Amino acid sequence: MEPLRAILGEARSVSTPVLEAVGLHKRFGAVIACHDVSVAFDAGELVGVVGPNGAGKTTFVNVVTGYVAPDSGYIKYRGREHSGLTPRTAVTLGIARSFQHPQLYESLTVLENALIALAVKERRHASWRPLKQARALQGASALLERFELGEAADVEVGQLPEGRRKVLDIAMSFALRPSVLLLDEPTSGVSAAEKFALMDTVTGALAEAQMTVLFIEHDMEVVERYARRVLAFVEGRIIADGRSADVLGDARVRELVLGVAEGA
Amino acid sequence: MKIDPGNLRRLLGVVLLVAVLALLGLWLAGWTRFLLTVALGESLAVIGVALLMRAGLVSFGQGLFSAVGAYAVAYGMRLWGIHEALLLLAVAVAASTLLAVAIGPLICRYRQIFFAMISLAFSMVLYSILLKFNTATGGSDGMEVTAATVLGYHAAAKALAGVYYYLTLACFGVALFATAAYYASPAGYLARAVRDNEIRLEYLGASVSRETFRAYIFAAALTGLSGGLFALAVGHVSPTLAYWTKSGEFLFAALLGGTSSPIAPVVGTVVFESLNSYLSAYLPNVWQMALGAIMLAIILLMPRGLWSLYERFSARHAA
Hints:
The complex is a heterodimer. Chain A has ten helices and ten strands. Chain A is α/β, with parallel strands linked by helices. Chain A has a six-stranded mixed beta sheet with strand order 6-7-8-3-9-10, with helices on both faces. In chain A, strands 2-1-4-5 form a four-stranded antiparallel beta sheet, covered by helices on one side. By secondary structure, chain B is mostly helical. At the A-B interface, α3 and α4 of A face α7, α8, α9 and α10 of B.
């Protein structure tokens, strides 16, 4: 990837990357979902991840967050090597994620979902003091307001429309105040009309937090508009990595990811 | 430590309920009061089962812990010569909690039918031990539990049932408040979170196995206390406490009452025990069939238990 980087002339900061994947390799039977992937991310980057279905985007997220163990390779977080990660240890380090299919507590309200995320973040699992105490409620309300979910606070999550579920899913990961947040298709299943509003809400909420954000996205309009850097995955490899305009304009990316034949 | 307003409200609710039941004890006839003593004691085991159900765990062997609690009381008297009820109950809770700490890490790795079966297996192992080692356990005859003192007070034989009623009521109140506080606490919500979505819980940085283990231990302590109270009130322990039908009764009562509030399983237990007594008295030949029919009706018409009636009622009045 480095040559392409050099060609695209992207300036790399000299500081240690917040997250680095080194030679990540993962095979599922005959399919290599992650083929020797090495890539680094700096603090505060907003990175779009594109690629056709089955290109290994979600596998990359799963490996980085410890849901799937790589066959080889490891990740470095703030310069330190970590192998044998689990979702729990990844979160404890500061790497959180959201899901393509929101993973929520369906039988609880939006507010209770937020309260649980904050209680875990503040390590109040074993406390005998109620979950719904004044200070915790303030924190949860602030979180929901930040993601424009305030008016839905008392709605049972099972009753929530998909767009709001997506946002709540992201809000719960954000509540953990990670340094790196990976969003798996934040706009899939959301109507075209709502997509930009959703991304505005999310990027707005994340902007001040200085988080490194990676988002997997199929909608190129969304990628163009929000990502400053883009990674293109094809068959488990990163075929392009650089400034979004450059990557989206790259001939191979246009052919393999966007399905646009050159000269057309 | 400052008491949280929510917990203060829960405490007042429990105190009010206990006060009503205390007055009821003065008014009830001896045998109905005994029925209520047994039901309130047993309700703690049913709360334990309901508490596990909230975490998505269906225990088919909760009788394990009520038997351990009951036999702990019997052995406490026989081997160590303890005759103070509160001490005996402390031994019962300690024994069941210790057992839960020992076997919990294994059992809490399982879910659904596997959890049900492995909990059933452990209780049946204890049942066999209690049955077969008859020189130490009294075999199928069990063991006698003689009258204990309460806070040093040695009640006359006639007054003992009354004293045990108030002892049970006091333990019931403490356990009910502890359960209500637990349900409202982060740990209580995390147990529900385990049932709803384990993946999300791990991705929040919490441990699913730690949360289920916590619920398992709490349920075991409640059930051990329940067994200890039963041993004192009935004056006798036998292996049937660990038999699977006993655990089935706990489940039945939990389903009958519901699991959404700490008081729901108590309602379930009292109704179940009353049905048990009255049906067997009035329909001696078909009472089990009648019980089955009632169970079927509850599951079909009120899948969230009798307590859902109250919830529907209060929701309508709140609206």
